[in-house]
Specification:
The protein is mainly α and 216 residues long. Helix content is 74%, strand content 0%.
């Protein structure tokens, strides 16, 4: 399967982060819903989660908030950090904060934790797949970065450090802090880190080919 290294131009792509059109709502909300659902699948595997969700689990343990509310709280704090870095928000940024947190909470409440190792593996693989698809749909709207992605790109611009090293430092830091606070680190965390780039790349490629096929 081929990978795409760019975000395709789609009929629902916004010209600016606040250029809201009706045709953008379905891909935006679908993408964010899939992202939150994938995060919930990883959490419910009980074999680890994404680094930021491990951090949210740690916050939830110490605040009494639900996992979704803890995720929203972290995203809100990250948004505050945007101001001195002069990062610009968009409609998608706010939607990211709300929708992912809500769907993550709903998924962890609704899905049982499997005792069968095969089902746990299915949760993990499925989680990475749907996060990849959701990311591709969300990114294709061009309605602004998510809170964590915006922090990454703004630090990259301000510090002049490679995006790779900024992303690695942020992910490693929140993972370590989350684990020390009681978050669950495990095989799902490592699998996510190793495969999410591939999942997003494949999803972007499929999306690009689909748009090209059905374009008038």
């Amino acid at each position: 399967m081929k990978l795409s290294h760019r975000i395709p131009v789609t009929p629902w792509r916004a010209t600016s982060p606040w250029d809201i059109r009706p045709r953008m709502f379905l891909p935006l909300l679908s993408g964010l819903t899939l992202f939150g659902f994938g995060e919930g699948l990883l959490v419910q595997s009980h074999w680890g989660a994404t680094p930021w969700t491990v951090f949210a689990e740690g916050v939830a343990r110490h605040t009494g908030f639900s996992l979704g509310w803890s995720t929203a709280l972290i995203s809100a704090v990250v948004l505050v950090l945007w101001f001195p870095l002069r990062e610009r928000t968009g409609f998608g940024t706010i939607a990211n904060l709300i929708v992912i947190a809500y769907v993550l909470d709903l998924t962890t409440y609704a899905l049982v934790v499997p005792s069968n190792p095969g089902l746990k593996i299915l949760y993990i693989v499925g989680g990475v797949l749907v996060i990849g698809i959701g990311s591709a749909l969300y990114l294709s709207t061009n309605l602004g970065p998510g809170p964590r992605d915006g922090l990454m790109t703004s630090l990259h611009r301000r510090l002049g450090v490679s995006l790779v090293y900024v992303r690695l430092t942020l992910e490693a830091t929140v993972l370590l802090v989350g684990w020390l606070m009681g978050g669950t680190f495990g095989v799902a965390t490592a699998f996510f880190a190793a495969t999410i780039g591939f999942s997003i790349g494949v999803s972007l490629y499929v999306l690009e080919r689909t748009v090209q096929r059905f374009a008038p």
